[in-house]
Write a structure and sequence with these properties.
The chain has 10 helices and 11 strands. It is of the alpha/beta class.
């Protein structure tokens, strides 16, 4: 009788321990993607940028909520929350071999894993996961865009090529990439104006004990002293520094002049940021060339 009671007590104790462990696991939220086996191949920022820039048939899928997508997403991405995928199959490629890349906020976000699983269940054979998501994209030096930026007028490459052949004709080309890449090569006659140009300057340092501390200097080139945050397939000078000092930036006095802003490629959100800021400054004819410098080199003269 005593042995039976002891056995029940042991079983009861084991059950309580198991319940507490399960409750603690649930309280910590869903499993982190970096701690579980991914359902599809994983890619990083470099691979994402190269695929978006060079592949014709590719779908970049933002599987977060519409609110998160509207607050900022990777250029070319379409929004399809994970919980809507199976109800919106008509919006997915008919070709089951099409490349589909899914992403969410970052490595702590499991939504991209769940989205990939659903796509695989729907028989898509070329699904990939950008696990770094929007957080890794921004940390690499790239810019997210918002739906209003996607409404900016865009210039196709034939029109851009005709404009360059005509010597500009009163139009301005603006390279929104960091100066280090501008120095490596750009479109003929382009000015270099990156999003950093529009960031507010640091206030002057306060005086302390009769001495003035020098104000912290900020410039579009301040990231040149940091490790290269940009895609590996974009070559850098061996010393990692820009070839020339920052140029004097000139903007046209005529606010009705045509301005065409470009970046590195389709994945690059910086030209959208610059174009929007130029619009705020009163320029009424601001266009974005989404293909950027990489498309110009590949398809241009």
């Amino acid at each position: 009788m005593n042995e039976s009671v002891q056995m029940k007590s042991v079983i009861h104790f084991i059950f309580i321990i198991f319940f507490l462990f399960a409750a603690a696991s649930f309280a910590q939220g869903p499993p982190r993607p970096d701690l579980v086996s991914p359902p599809a191949p994983i890619i990083g920022v470099d691979e994402l940028a190269k695929m978006v820039d060079t592949e014709k048939h590719i779908l970049l899928l933002d599987v977060r909520s519409k609110k998160a997508y509207d607050n900022g997403h990777i250029p070319t991405a379409r929004n399809m929350p994970t919980w809507e995928i199976e109800q919106r199959t008509s919006e997915l490629p008919q070709d089951k071999d099409a490349r589909i890349i899914v992403y969410c906020d970052g490595t702590g976000c499991p939504v991209s894993f769940y989205g990939a699983e659903i796509l695989i269940k729907l028989q898509y054979k070329n699904v990939m996961i950008f696990t770094g998501g929007t957080s890794a994209f921004v940390q690499s030096g790239e810019s997210l865009i918002t739906p209003d930026m996607e409404q900016l007028p865009q210039m196709p490459i034939p029109d851009l090529w005709a404009m360059v052949q005509a010597g500009g004709g009163g139009s301005w080309l603006i390279d929104a990439r960091p100066k280090i890449y501008y120095d490596l090569g750009t479109l003929p006659g382009a000015e270099n104006i990156s999003p950093d140009f529009f960031k507010p300057q640091q206030p002057a340092a306060k005086q302390s004990q009769g001495q003035t501390q020098p104000a912290k200097q900020t410039s579009p080139d301040q990231n040149l002293q940091k490790p290269n945050p940009y895609p590996a397939y974009m070559a850098l000078p061996s010393d990692g520094k820009a070839a020339n000092p920052a140029p004097q930036i000139h903007l046209p006095e005529d606010h009705s002049a045509m301005l065409v802003v470009f970046g590195e490629g389709l994945h690059d959100g910086r030209p959208y940021v610059v174009a929007k800021e130029l619009g705020k400054k009163g320029y009424s004819k601001v266009f974005v060339f989404p293909g950027g410098y990489s498309t110009w080199k590949r398809l241009g003269p």
